[in-house]
Amino acid sequence: MTLRTRLLLGYGYLIALVIVVAGTAAVGFFNLSGGLERVLESNVESVRASTEMLESLERQDSATLTLLIQPEVTGESLEESNRAFQTSLETARSKASTSRERELLDTIERRYQTYRQQRAQLLEAQPDNPLLAYENQTFPAFRDVKTKVLELLDHSYQKMVDAEQRVRSRATEYGAWLGFLVAIALLSLIFLTRGLRRLVLDRLTDLQTVAADVARGETQRRVQVERRDELGLVGEQFNEALDRQMELRSRMQGRLNEHDQLVAGLLHHQEGPCALLALDGEPIASTLPDDVHQSVISAARAWIDQQGRDSVSQGEVDELEMELEGVEAPCSIELVQTPGGRLVGWMVSTESA
Questions:
Q1: Which tens digits make up the pLDDT trace of 40-49?
Q2: CATH number for the 269-350 domain, one of 3.30.450, 1.10.3470, 3.40.50, 3.30.1120?
Q3: Which one of 63, 107, 236, 285 counts the least CB within 10 Å of its CB?
Q4: Alpha-carbon span 203 to 11, nearest angstrom
Q5: Is residue 167 within 8 Å of residue 35, measured between CB atoms?
Q6: For residue 138, what pLDDT is reported?
C-alpha cells in the first residue's frame, strides 16, 4: 500500500468519524428539542385545563349558593361556568396521553353530571333551609368532582416531572454517546499522528540526517529502506545515486592515479631532477632528490606567488633561470603549455648539489 493511500485512508476515517459525531449531535439535539416541545405542549395544556375546570367549579358553586339565597338572580353565570367546564374537559381529553388520565377524565365527567343533576334538583326544589340542603345534597357531589379534578391536576404535574426525567435521561445518554465518539476521535487522532510521525516524519528526518552526513563527507552512509512506498523509493534512488557517485569517484581516482604515474614516468625521461607544478604552484609530480625536494618546491611556490603570475600575464619569457631563495643549486622555471598554447603548469628543473 502506498504512502498516499495510507494517508488518505487515515484522514478519510477521521473525517468520517467527525461527520458521525456532528450528525449524532445534530440528531440528538433535534430529537430532544422536539420531544421536550411535545411534552411541554401536552402537559402544560393538561395542567391549564385542570386549573380552568377547578376555577369553573368554584364559580358554579358560588353561583349555586347565590341562586339558593337569592332566587330572583338569573342563572347566566352558572351556565357560562358550565360551558367553560365542558370546554376545559374536552381540552383535557384531547391532550390525554395515559390510560390513567383518560380514566380520571371519564370519572370526572360522570361525577360532574351527577353534581349537575343534584344541583338542578336543589335549585328547582327551593327548600326552606337552602344552606343545609346544599350541605347535605349538593356539596358532597361538588366535593367529589373537585377531588377528582385535583387528582387529575396532580397526575398532569407528575407527568411533567416524569417527562422531564425522561428527557434528562435521554440527554444524558446522548451526552455519553457523544463523549464516547469524541473519545474515539481523539484516540484515532493520536494513533494517526503517531502513524504519520512513523511513516513520514521519522523517515524524512532519517533521510535529512543521511544527506547532511554525506554533505560532510561521510560517503558510506545510506538511507535505511523499510517500506516500498513513495519515501522508500526516494530512499532507494538516493542510495543508488550515492552508489553511482562512489563508483564514479573510484573510477576517477583510479584514472587520476594512472595520470600521476604517467606524469611521474615522463618526468624520469627529463634531463636532470625536476618537478611539475600546477599554475597555482601545487605540486603534481617530482623526481627531485629527497634532500632538496621540499626546499625546491617551497621556494618555487613562493616565487610563483610573488612574480610568476605577473610573468604569465605579461607574456614574458617562458623559461627563467634564477636563484631560488634557500636553494643552493641553480634552478630554472619553465611554463608548460599545450600544443594549442594553453598554459597548464610550471616545470622546475635543478641540478643535484
A1: 666 777 888 8
A2: 3.30.450
A3: 236
A4: 20
A5: yes
A6: 85
